[in-house]
UniProtKB/TrEMBL annotation:
This is Helicase HerA central domain-containing protein. It comes from the Bacteria. Coiled coil: none annotated. Residues 10-77 form the Helicase HerA central domain. It holds the Pfam family DUF87. Gene3D superfamilies: P-loop containing nucleotide triphosphate hydrolases.
């Protein structure tokens, strides 16, 4: 099952999709000079994928805080918190799968790099059970992963560069998919840029940047000139999540915008020169009172923000879809989703975080506010489904469920498959079937698993003189047929 979003249109006005699930596995690099439309592209990507994947935005200019108005991201104003609190928030974000915007605009560049490094390291160091898929967007990535030393101290630069390297090089196994944007490829550390497999290249003028962009897109050097001629909001895309050949894309419209930014011409004031001079040089004591300024909101206490992160996945979604969810039979949706997922023979061999993400998306597509099972509950429910028990509430499975209650998660699916065969009077499942339930194609691992289950007293294995195997289940007092 693919989860495509519409990023824009090509030269023939056809929609250009991006496969978000593939993007999570292969990462994204966006390049373009200031004014080329990078931030607009990232905003389009975030808006279109908001309902499909958790999003974490590292925002050095405060451009993306408006996502909170329409998509209920939690905004973290980094200047209000210390290093320990930022680290705690990063860990809590992985646990509760909250979409957040880390706004760094009130900090100096060195503080921005230090704060981003702390935050990204907390995401990266989360416990294994919290390795949920997340799209991590970093704007102005050349600030956090510079190719050369600058005005900041070496310790801060190394810490920030190491955090960005972990995100792009080692983050995939932890569910973190980097999507980074830079004004100049020449200013971005090569080991960070090289880990992306998807590229969206916007307008750039310097020869060194055009040459690197052309190399990444697989274009000849003489073709690199077209990168200089791209219009604002147009990008050349390439990668497994976008297209196998370079394609020109005009990025589509967005629903949100930058707060307070004006980039178009405005009429000049019509005051006469004498009046303007009088206003500018009037005595201070007679100067008109300043316009009232809307006060900045008071900083949110770290504890309160942590509670907001923990509750964001429930409150915001349920408030929007409560009426629709009341009419939906969540249990029927769970059963249907599990059946559809296991109809794909490769589903049993995929990583747990990928399977749970697929399950969550299927539930949301059926108008559920959120997945009705957390990761722990889904892990056992999916194991039961791999064993052929899709609805554990059915009376005929009551004894089986009771017998499996004390088993560890890794033993559950093979045990249920064998126990179901014993209840239905079927032959013992073969090694291929047990391997699919266990998530392995190794016959040796299956043999070791059966030996381990027998040592634990969960099963009793018998073999006749013909080499046929049958398995007894002591807790049920039943045995499978010989196989």
């Amino acid at each position: 099952m693919t989860h495509n979003i519409d990023i824009g249109t090509d030269g023939a006005s056809r929609a250009v999709p991006i496969d978000i699930q593939e993007l999570l596995a292969t990462r994204l690099l966006v390049q373009g000079n200031s004014g080329s439309g990078k931030s607009h592209l990232l905003r389009r990507l975030l808006e279109q994928s908001a309902g499909l994947v958790q999003q974490v935005v590292v925002d050095p200019e405060g451009d993306f805080v408006t996502l909170a108005d329409a998509y209920h991201h939690v905004v973290i104003h980094a200047g209000d918190y210390n290093e320990r609190e930022i680290a705690a928030m990063g860990a809590r974000i992985r646990e509760h799968r909250a979409s957040v915007v880390l706004a760094l605009d009130t900090l100096e560049i060195e503080a921005q790099m230090s704060c981003a490094a702390t935050f990204l390291n907390a995401l990266f160091d989360a416990p294994r059970e919290h390795w949920f898929p997340a799209l991590v967007v970093v704007d102005e990535a050349q600030m956090f992963a510079p190719s050369a030393s600058g005005e900041v101290t070496d310790a801060v630069r190394r810490a920030s560069l190491a955090a960005m390297t972990n995100l792009m090089c080692r983050g995939r196994k932890r569910g973190l998919a980097g999507a980074i944007a830079t004004q100049r490829l020449a200013k971005l550390a090569k080991n960070v840029a090289a880990e992306a497999s998807n590229f969206l290249m916007g307008r750039t003028f310097l020869d060194i940047d055009m040459a690197r962009a052309a190399d990444l897109l697989g274009m000849e050097r003489r073709q690199a000139e077209q990168i200089r001629d791209l219009e604002r909001g147009c990008f050349l895309g390439l990668g497994p999540a976008i297209s196998r050949r370079p394609v020109a894309i005009r990025i589509g419209a967005t629903e949100t915008s930058v707060r307070g930014g004006v980039h178009s011409l405005l009429p000049l004031p019509e005051a006469e020169p004498q009046d303007m001079q009088s206003m500018l040089f009037a005595a201070l004591e007679t100067a008109p009172p300043p316009r009232p300024v809307t006060p900045e909101p008071a900083p949110v206490a770290a504890g309160e923000l942590l509670e907001r992160i923990a509750g964001s996945d429930t409150a915001t979604e349920e408030s929007e879809t409560a009426d629709a969810a009341e009419a939906v039979d969540s249990e029927a949706i769970v059963v249907a989703a599990l059946r559809d997922m296991l109809a794909d023979p490769e589903a049993a061999f995929q990583a747990e975080s990928v399977v749970y993400q697929d399950f969550s998306v299927r539930c949301r597509m059926q108008r559920l506010a959120r997945a009705p099972l957390d990761l722990t509950a889904f892990r056992r429910r999916f194991a039961l489904a791999k064993g052929g028990v899709f609805d554990p509430a059915e009376p005929r499975w009551a004894e089986l469920i009771a017998a499996a209650a004390t088993l560890s998660d890794d033993m559950l699916a093979p045990f249920v498959l064998i126990a179901r065969a014993a209840i239905e009077g079927l032959p013992c499942p073969d090694d291929d079937a047990l391997g699919a339930a266990y998530g392995t194609r190794s016959p040796g691992r299956i043999r070791r698993l059966i030996d381990y289950m027998e040592r634990q007293g969960a099963i009793v294995v018998r073999s006749d003189f013909g080499g046929r195997r049958s398995v007894g289940i002591p807790a049920l007092g039943l045995s499978t047929g010989a196989e």
